[in-house]
Amino acid sequence: MNETTRYLQSVPPTEDPEIGTLVNCMLRDAVQNEASDLHIEPWESTVVVRVRLGGVLRELVHLPLDLLDKIAGRFKVMANLVSYQTDVPQEGHAPTDEDIGVELRVSVFPTVRGEKIVVRIFDPRNRSFDLAGLGFEEDTLRSMYEALAHPNGLLLLTGPTGSGKTTVIYAALTHLVNQHGPTVSISTVEDPVEFALPMVSQAQVNLSREFTYARALRSLMRQDPEVIMIGEIRDPETANIAVQAGLTGHLVISTIHAGSTAGTFARMINMGIEPFLLSSAVVGVLGLRLIRLNCPHCSAPTEADSNHHKHIPEEVLAGATLRQGTGCTHCVETGYSGRSALTEMLVMNDTLRESVLERLPTRRLQQVAVDGGLRTLWQNGLDRVMRGETTLAEIQRVLAGDAF
Ligand SMILES: [Zn+2]
User: Fold this and answer.
1) Which of 36, 151, 198, 353 is most buried, judging by how many CB atoms fall within 10 Å of its CB?
2) 324: CA distance to ligand 1 center in Å?
3) Would you place residue 267 in the very low, low, confident or very high pLDDT band (cuts 50, 70, 90)?
4) What is the largest CA-CA distance in the chain?
5) Residue range of the domain that includes 348
6) What is the strand order of the sheet 103-111 is part of?
């Protein structure tokens, strides 16, 4: 039983629960389960409290609807938000009590049933900013180290929200700090800064004060940095400055929303970047997903089913060690415990450069990359399944919507 439920059962039926205690119980349950987010949301007849575990939402508890305003009020006080405003979205950071020991990013959003509260949880004890500890495929890790050794150029990361892009970028910057120490100047512009890194100048964009990515970058160019990290390239001006910086002696690391790794080039060209500049600037593109790993306590060997036979060649299946979890207390009955990065790393070479110059469509760019040795997310995912690290269903869940 979770702590929240235990606390609620200890409250006499004639009394209301103490809101500070209730909120702390929910946070403790979330941290205990290593949840990334806590969702508190009014449904028709209850307030549902859910936690996101390994990328998937699970119900923690249901509460009476009349507690919602008090809980929202409590989070607003914690995050220094305007308590009496209930009809506009608000966001803020909040520390927790020392015994919980995490940082929170609180987002309050007005819905027609009342305020929905989503809390992102940052546990400094869980943050490993070690590139070698993220579960990268060997090829990817080697290519990342090579890309980070470039004195200039543009290294892009792409993947959906929650695919671990920020963690990978922080690990990349930590690697550069470890390699070069105080001889390198590293600056970031982020939205928001999620973790304070040693020996890195981090800035946070502030749209209400017109401190945009583009404005921050124009100014940063006069700050003599060697390495620049841009939280996200999402407008033509930022894209243009990023490419220019990459071409003029800076290593630029950023993320971009694109449908696929190879699709990054089309996205940049759509933002007005000339293919000849793009092809010279980009050193690599890392496609990223997060997969759940089989629980070490309850996973066991399993036979291939029709799904495996449909997607995996028989000769490959013959050498496989398929495993699957059945669910136990260690994995909160999910069968999965812990997560790992699943990657594909597109490394620039002459053929790819020419293909970008020729504005080849994304599908053909992807084929050129595969012909040049790119191992795709799908292939790397199947390798993980073959080795029993995760299930085919998990790879299909994470790559749903991708072409494979
Ligand atoms: Zn288990």
Assistant:
1) 36
2) 10
3) very high
4) 74
5) 127-398
6) 56-64, 46-53, 37-42, 114-122, 103-111, 90-95
Q: Within this chain, do residues 76 and 154 fall inside the same structural domain, yes or no? A: no
CA dist., res. 389 & res. 313, Å (int):
19
pLDDT score recorded for residue 127: 67
Going from the Cα of 320 to the center of ligand 1, the distance in angstroms, rounded, reads 21
Single-letter residue type at 392: L
pLDDT in tens, 47-105: 999 999 988 999 999 999 999 999 999 999 999 999 999 999 999 989 888 888 888 99
| Claim to verify: residue 96 and residue 144 sit in the same structural domain | no
Residue 131 has pLDDT above 80, yes or no: yes
**If phi over 0 gives left and psi between -120 and 50 gives alpha, with beta otherwise, what is residue 278?**
alpha
Angle between helices 213-220 and 236-247 (to 10 degrees): 20
The confidence score (pLDDT) of residue 126 equals 64
* Ion ligand 1 nearby residues (CB, 5 A): 295, 297-298, 325, 328, 330-331
Please indicate, yes or no, whether residues 39 and 116 belong to a single structural domain of this protein: yes
Whether 170 contacts 298, CB under 8 Å: no
